[in-house]
Amino acid sequence: MTSQVSSPAEQADEAVVGEQRKPGDRAKDVRRVDRVIIRFAGDSGDGMQLTGDRFTSETASFGNDLSTLPNFPAEIRAPAGTLPGVSSFQLHFADHDILTPGDAPNVLVAMNPAALKANVGDLPRGAEIIVNTDEFTKRAMQKVGYGGNPLEDGSLDGYHLHPVPLTTLTVEALKDFDLTRKEAERSKNMFALGLLSWMYHRPTEGTERFLRAKFAKKPQIAEANLTAFRAGWNFGETTEDFAVSYEIAPATTAFPPGVYRNISGNLALAYGLIAASRQADLPLFLGSYPITPASDILHELSRHKNFGVRSFQAEDEIAGIGAALGAAFGGSLAVTTTSGPGVALKSETVGLAVSLELPLLIVDIQRGGPSTGLPTKTEQADLLQAMYGRNGEAPVPIVAPRTPADCFDAALEAARIALTYRTPVMLLSDGYLANGSEPWRVPEVDELPDLRVQFAQGPNHTEADGTEVFWPYKRDPHTLARPWAVPGTPGLEHRIGGIEKQDGTGNISYDPANHDFMVRTRQAKVDGVDVPDIEVDDPDGARTLVLGWGSTYGPITAAVRRLRSAGEAIAQAHLRHLNPFPKNLGVVLKSYDKVVIPEMNLGQLATLVRAKYLVDAHSYNQVNGMPFKAEQLATALKEAIDG
User: Fold this and answer.
1) What are phi and psi of 182, to 5 degrees?
2) 3-state SS assignment for residue 167
3) For position 27, what pLDDT does the model report?
4) Which end of the chain has fewer beta carbons closer than 10 Å to its terminal beta carbon, N or C?
5) For residues 264 and 407, what is the distance between their CA atoms, to the nearest angstrom?
6) 18 pLDDT band (50/70/90 cuts)?
7) pLDDT classification of 532: cutoffs 50, 70, 90
8) pTM above the 0.90 mark?
9) Quick one: which of 231, 111, 238 has its CA closest to 174?
């Protein structure tokens, strides 16, 4: 859908479709819109992520389609009131299918001058701005470079400004509680949440249950937050400044029938790993070292010991993958989670896993680099590291999810490849998918793939003298996978280690011909991984193809929809498997006059495509730590079509 929801100024002639409750004799207008984009912004201590998360949960329970973009500083606690310390949470929700968190917010909730200054440039004219006037002191404004008060100098005349003394109103609402002023002020985010919940007709029961559960051991704090939340709702209903509320109907046609829940990419990935272990009938072992933005997977998996999950927080990245590889040798579905810097540290052990030919999942939640880079921002710049970032010829299959909910299916697919072909597999998510959320249909158990494996049980080779022995590198003729022998099984003793193995026996071998054979065999195994053909969405016989991978799916698809609604013909294809590529990819690429590859890097997939298929693919790149905007991509793709 290409149209943005109109602002209140632009909606002056819209018909009233309903009424809110009437305080006294005064009625408030209810206007129906098809979608809205809200951004909560404040200091990193203002609880913006919690506020956004609660608003998202209630929106999901209401039945809207949604997409979120949390954005927070890397510092544990940046200086209060400064631009580097601004934390924000953007939510796009609608009565129809949507794909991105939205390009530009229709509503900005700014808790202080820094939040206003950091975000006002993203707003379209006519957008609504709700500001906490209590924080607009002379010192706070000077701290972020305001020479005067932006609420009074006319600089915001192009917007619909709602000055609200959030702090004062919150403290007043909590005056009967035995709280200090500082303690009472902490609930101002709940006041803002209540106000926005009234404004957009969000359910409130879930938030009330959440607050009671979260502060179950501190009932006074729970009641204070509930009181602030209700005060915000009542303020919206009674104040003269908010004469209109907005209604966004549930997205009844956007989803197939089923049970849905809101889910983030990291949570979906954790659930996918658990599901894979159950479908494989193997214990799940996670060897991990905490690193942004992958740590949530460790946190989540550590809660599920009842499903046979063993989580191990190691002292460093190398120990994490070493423990995971040991667990793989011992017969577990082994996983290690990290981000780009951690992949670099794990590279030697990934090579060892390639040599040992054991199933191992390496989950890379990509972030901005190089080095420490941008820990809380997103990027797609680890593709070439995943493909080649090891010494020697050490090929590894690569799988990439496209949306937060798709992280569940990508985890299952990565596990299928690892278990079937006895190989380490890279799963490339990123910060945008990890922290973003969307509705997810909870699958039925019988919809999940059967991932059960057969461990080696006894000898598999007969010597010339008739002796039956176990050869650890005797391969399945179809998959080239070697047998998986669990330690302690009588008669299946065999060597492991990083020195080259002799084909079949697994004995140490320095023979040049054997090394050549083993290198080529490991490569052939990865090349032979069974992956589905890439599907092309091309309803109009286009001459231009846009090819993407990973989290660019949402912005690309939204941009393609915009172009098609404007009468342009453009085809779209999206890669889940990056090594090996789908077998029909070359034919698909060569059937179009132009191929455009948008990436959040400097052209890594484009480099691989050009090298492998000799196709003059055009890169469109962004490395600013943020996902593409649909309008930005639509403009670039239109130029490619016309060029």
Assistant:
1) -65, -40
2) helix
3) 62
4) C
5) 9
6) very low
7) very high
8) yes
9) 231
